[in-house]
Amino acid sequence: MFKKIAMFALAVSAAFSNAVAQDDCSVTLSGATVFTGYQIQPSVTKVICGDNEYTADQLTSVSYGANINAGTDAGSVTVKLPNGDRITKNFTIKSKGILVKIEDCEKELGGENPEFSWYIEERTNMSTLQADTAKKFQAELAKKFKTTLASGVEEVGFKFEISNDKSVDLKKLFPNYDIMVTSGYMTITKTKIKVTAKNAGKTYGAADPKLEYTITGNIKEADYKKLGTITLSRAEGENAGTYDISVSVVDETEDYIVTAVPGKFTISPVAASLTVDSFTKIYGETTPEFTYKVSGLIGKDVLKDVTLSCAKCLSTNLENVDEYTITANVKAGSNPNYTVKVTNGTLTVTPKDAKVYVGTFEKLYGDKDPTFTFETEGLAREGEELELPKVTRAKGENVGTYKVSVSFAEGSNTNYTLTIVPGSLTINPRPVVLTVTDVVKKFGEKDPELGYTVDALASFDGVKDVLKGVALQREPGEDAGDYAITATVDDEANPNYVVSTVDGKLTIVANNDKIVVTVVGHDLTAEYNGKEQVVKGFDISCSSEAYSLDYVEYTGDSVVTGLDAGKYVMGLSAKNFKNTSLNYPNVTFNITDGVLTITPRKLIVSAKADTITYGDEIPTEFKWSADSLLEGDELTGIHVALYNGMQVDENGSLSVDANGRLAAGKYLLDFDQRNPSNKNYVVSKYEPSYLTVLRKEVVLAIADTCKIYSEADPDTFAYEITGLLEGDRLTGIYVARELGDTVRPAGDLYRISALVDDNPNYTVVVKQGYFTVKPYTGRITVAIYGDVIKSLYTGEEITVLKTFDVSPMKIPGEEWLADSIAYKKEFVAYKGDLNMSGVDMGTYPMGLQASDFVNISPNFERVNFIVAYDGKLVITDEPISIAAVKGIKAFEVSSMNRRIQISGSTVGKAYAVLDMQGKVISRGFVKTPNFGITVQNSGVYMVRIGSSIQRVRVK
Q: Is the Cβ–Cβ distance between 665 and 584 less than 8 Å?
């Protein structure tokens, strides 16, 4: 028998658990185990071997087999226990449910069967499959899936079932999928026939052709006569345009559905040609009148409303040289029977001949060019000028004759063909005068440099021209008097000039000027370095270039030395210097003595930082250093103290607390004595520093503590403080633990920590404690409530998953726990067979056993399970009602305003309402199909009517 799985069983939630067991060990798993194309990895929640039980976090490792394809024992999981043992268990991977729908279709009576199509229904949810797996499956299913049509006699309105071909074993071809196919149906319809008029036409002026039609549909040509008389006609009219062709079918038969489709008759315009005539003229001439020729007209027809125009032609007849299009506009509405092709004409304007004459010009060498001009002859209109002229001459500025011409920018004056007659520019030599400059010198001096001036020389770009080949020569002699200076010029080297010369003279006079000889002794300023320093020599200079310093004689010693800071003079004076030349009697000496200056060495004196911890004794002496003090030298008269900027008492002592302690912080170290005694040094800067008082470290150690699950936390947590000085205390100590009440393993206990107000003198180090929640040792009883699952009868085996709920029960002698810590469904694992099956209509009990339920919560050690209500599978032929109560049509349950509303029940049946601890809230017999039951509290209740039971939540 083919096994069918109910759709709600295929979509089972991953929240339910399953367990696999073999030999004396069992492995409890949770998570979905339906084929997806991915590796299936259900979580291991618990392992039991004999009397030993292990939770997931106690396992050394968990590994999985291939775990991909569906099948019994197709999946495997291997766990490694803390003792090193390995256990491998197999589990079932279920097939993926696939819903295929064959689409309905139609077929005309006597026609060919259409191609049957199908699709995978959207509710199949293909997104749960791995993408490549889903793509490969759909492609392979498209190749292998086949359909078959049921046999029978075709009649209009008859439906034939389209089902999947049972010869194709889909389960064998696709073992990872459970494919369920919904059949489609093919409906037989009447034959549809179309009579369509063929489109036709002619050109304007021709005779009409014969009109024709076509017949399409499932009909033989021999049966055309069954359709009756078919008549075609067109609308009247002979001008170009479109006219309807109508179809008339007389005596239509009942065997067919006949549709008449009209056609179109088109009269096309005749092609005609219009050619515009072309013309040529010279720039400036009068534009001729435009004309055209026409061909292709029928009979005596003529074109109407023809307009000739030239868009760019001018009324002044002064169109530029170019080609201008002459267009024709034929009004289409005035000539509907013709399609006129227009060929444009061209007006060509050619250039006019003209001449340009350039004049002749002169200038002197070095002068600017005159303004060049030209005249024109042959222009089209009076007063017209040529555009963008550029007059140029041959390069050169030397004496000679140069060509002068005119050109026009490229693209300008296109309306003319120009003939250019060039002119000339003549450059003539420039007359200049060279005058030799008179000079004077004193006896014994060297001759001054000889020179001259030239007037009227030309300048080019701001640079003045010079004469070449000029030579000056003076008359010989050194005695006082006048000596002629003459000039000669090389004429060939100066072709652009005509040069005239004027002579000059040199005058020699006696030298009786006062001569001053200046002597400056060398100076040196140096910083004290502990070694002897020396300055030697002097610099000498004279006020006259004619006097030689070789005439000066020196006697004396020009050296000075020094060690300590101070000033030392060299001792130079005028008596040490003598003039030895008789030719220069008026010589005096100006003496500046040399000096050695040794300055004191600059020092930066810095106080040295110091550090103590709060509570330490306050130092009475502080150190300092000098950055540049030479080895062997000493400084006295300097002292560092802690008093500057500090609060002191009347005796000058530091202000401290009652215990003699200086509070944590920074305190200025400065100089109370600044009188250095060594004259070879000067202190440029005194740099203070700080005494830092560090915070003292104390330790706050929190003691470990514990409680039993369900108990309240202790009111306070114990701790101990070490390192605090006598008389001091910490404030604002707040101790709390990490939130949570679930039992945790030894390596993951709850932490106890503390917050402490900041203390300026202490750094508090908190050593955390650990809080242990131990399992609840009291016995509790938990009730199991099986669900009622309803399925529609199919005649085949139906398999569903067992589902249930749990709730604590109040048992005398057992402590009742608050809701926040009560036993929950996620604390329990079911190790029995999850599947239950049935074929015939009726009720099948789940067979839930208390021994199949295992506590997996670390919070409880003694849990007793009781099956309060065994679940069941109900197979019925009534449609499944999607209502508040799953699978039960006899009544419906809803809750509102803490009231349970029952609808559609059977009068006379017994009813009862129980809470989840098994206590009866209300009971009686049904008096009316629809009635309500009031409840006092929100929560979950079990409603029983007759043999039907359903769970309902009241908010």
A: no
Helix (H/G/I), strand (E/B), else coil: 518: strand
Distances (CA, A) of 424 to 373, 380, 419, 427, 496: 11, 28, 17, 10, 19
Q: What is the CATH number of domain 430-509?
A: 2.60.40.10
133 — phi, psi (to 5°)?
A: -65, -45
Question: In this structure, how many other beta carbons lie within 10 angstroms of the beta carbon of residue 705?
Answer: 16
Nearest CA-CA partner of 889 in 810, 824, 950, 952:
950
The yes-or-no answer to whether 191-268 and 515-599 have a common fold is: no
Cα angle 825, 827, 833; round to 5: 75
Give the pairing type, strands 256-261 and 191-197: parallel
Q: Which amino acid type is present at position 857?
A: S
Q: What's the full length of the chain, in residues?
A: 955
Out of 2.30.40.10, 2.60.40.3080, 2.40.10.220, 1.10.3720.10, the CATH code matching 881-955 is: 2.60.40.3080
Q: What is the pLDDT of residue 947?
A: 59
Q: What is the pLDDT of residues 663-672, one digit of tens each?
A: 888 888 888 8
Task: Name the residue ranges covered by the structural domains of the chain.
Answer: 4-94, 97-189, 191-268, 270-350, 352-428, 430-509, 515-599, 601-694, 696-774, 776-878, 881-955
Give the pair of three-digit tokens for residue 573.
Answer: 């004076």
Query: 231 near 254, Cβ under 8 Å?
Result: no
Structure tokens at 513: 């000027």
Q: What is the DSSP string of 352-400?
A: EEEEEEE-EEEEETTSPPPPP-EEEE--SSTT---SSEEEEE-S--SSE
Pairs from 230-239 (Cβ < 8 Å, separation ≥ 24): 230/195, 232/197, 234/200, 234/208, 234/265, 235/265, 237/267, 238/204, 238/267, 239/204, 239/267, 239/336, 239/337
- Structure confidence at residue 882 (pLDDT): 30
CATH architecture label of 601-694: Sandwich (2.60)
Domain 696-774 falls in which CATH fold? Ribosomal Protein L9; domain 2 (3.10.430)
Nearest to 261 by CA among 332, 337, 194: 194
Token pair recorded at residue 327: 């267009």
Asked whether residue 896 carries a pLDDT value surpassing 50, the answer given is: no
Whether pLDDT at 662 is above 70: yes
- Planar angle of CA 774, 776, 777, nearest 5 degrees: 110
More confident residue, 267 or 877: 267
Closest CA to 503 of 433, 430, 432: 433
How far apart CA 56 and CA 857 sit, in angstroms, is 12
Q: Name the phi and psi angles at 160, rounded to 5.
A: -110, 130
* CATH architecture of the domain with residue range 352-428: Sandwich (2.60)
CA angle 746, 748, 753 (to 5 degrees): 110
Contacting residues for 131 by C-beta, under 8 A, at least 6 apart: none
Q: Which residues pair with 273 in a beta bridge?
A: 295, 341
Residue whose token pair is 């669900």: 787
Mean pLDDT of 862-873: 91
CA max distance for the chain: 169
Nearest partner of 863 among 792, 784, 931, judged by Cα = 784
- 747: tokens are 């390596």
Q: Can you tell me the distance from the alpha carbon of 125 to that of 137, in angstroms, rounded to the nearest whole number?
A: 14
To the nearest whole percent, how much of the chain has pLDDT over 90?
44
The pTM is what? Answer: 0.38
Going along 368-415, which residue ranges are E strands?
A: 374-377, 389-393, 400-408
Coil, helix or strand at residue 946:
coil
Interval 604-642: pLDDT, tens = 999 999 999 998 888 888 999 888 888 888 888 899 888
CATH class for the region spanning 97-189? alpha beta
Give the dihedral sign, CA 894/899/903/909.
positive
The sign of the torsion formed by the CA atoms of 655, 659, 660, 661 equals: negative
Q: Confidence class of residue 571 from pLDDT cuts 50, 70 and 90? A: confident
